[in-house]
Amino acid sequence: MSRRESPDLLIIDDDEIVGALLEGQARHHGFNPRVFDSGEEALNHLPALSNSVEVVLLDLMMPGWSGFDCLAHLGKHFPELPVVILSASDDAKQAVEAMKRGAFDYVTKPFDSGELFSVVRNARRLRKAERENTALKAALDTAPRVGSFVARSEPMQRVVDQAKKVAGLDATVLLTGESGVGKGVLARLIHSESARSEASLLTVSCPALPRDLLESELFGHEKGAFTGATKRRIGKIEAAAGGSLFLDEIGDLSLELQPKLLSVLQDREFQRVGGEETMKADVRVIAATNLDLEKKIQDGEFREDLFYRLNVIPIVIPPLRERLEELPDLCESILGDLAKRIGLPPTKLNAAALDCLRAYDFPGNVRQLENALTRAAAFCQDGVIAPDDLPDEIRGTGADPELPSNLAGIPLDRLELAAIQQTLAQCDGNKAETARRLGISERTIYNKLKRHGLA
Known about the structure:
- This protein has 19 helices and 14 strands.
- It has 455 residues and is α/β, with parallel strands linked by helices.
- A five-stranded parallel sheet has the order 2-1-3-4-5, with helices on both faces.
- Strand 9 and strand 10 form a beta hairpin.
- Helix 6 crosses helix 7 (183-192).
- The longest helix is centred in the N-terminal third of the chain and has 21 residues, at 113-133.
- The radius of gyration is 23 Å and the shape is globular.
- The two termini are 38 Å apart.
């Protein structure tokens, strides 16, 4: 077993020779691996390693705890870790079952080293994208925590009533609202109240992967479909059979993939990439977006027929600033959840801190509130959050003091820099979220940061 510190790849395989081979190849491909020869031992050590481990490479057939046992444990206790299954069996049923239980991908032995570690890199890439999208996302394939979903205001009670009514209809639902309002939470509520609740709810984040990887993520691919596709891969549509598929940020789906999704919604059929077999799609689709899809249709960036297929049952989630009466209950729920989930002591807000929160409009909505409270709870004194513990932008001290109120004649580069800096501060450095709020692509935000010397 490797003793290297801060491993980013956990390898679990009972075959000592295969374990040593994987360890060497992992280092060759730029990973810092740690190898265990039993599931029990690996999972006993994982709590101490989970902050650094980004991917788990897991053998399926092992004595003691099998790969499925380990997968169940990881899904319950470490849902944020992507798991790549490695198996000597080329059984499609096992692959589908592993994907249903939350595996990122399934590779069979004998394996091609390049292909295997390409899959592992993609898993790590998606893990990092999820970390950027939400600072404390609970899982690769799950929505934000239900515990932070408070519906005390009239608008939110109406949203929850709508969600519960449509849950049993098995129709496509489109959730709209600003980033961070809780669309993922509502998707989980709809799934849990539906007839499909015993099956999986799988999530695909449309902007997290480039088009070619996203296509394989959704539809799967056949061996030889493209360079590096040396094995068949099961996509999320197939793996979610009998359950629900949550398509997050559907407005970012490329025009090339939109006709394929339309076929799934319209005909309940799809084909794996590079395949000729037409397969049935037994999934209930719940989509979400913070974009104006009708405007994207006018701009030629979204298909009108796909919009109407998605918009069968629309539910609009109001922003936090329109339901600030929920703040006390929402803060109590978030702080209580933090105490249970990451071991922080019981924490509460004093009256002055709550007044600061009420005076702020929360452009990042509940997600921004969660991030602010997490940081404040970690550094506050005696378990009480005071105004000084809150981020500068919430206390009203985050504005650029050099930017005058009259913007006439100010160079556009300076305005652009101020907008990027202030939005980054509000988003706790989350570049993907910053790009969405500024109405530009994530690639553009990286280019602008580089141009301004902030990369």
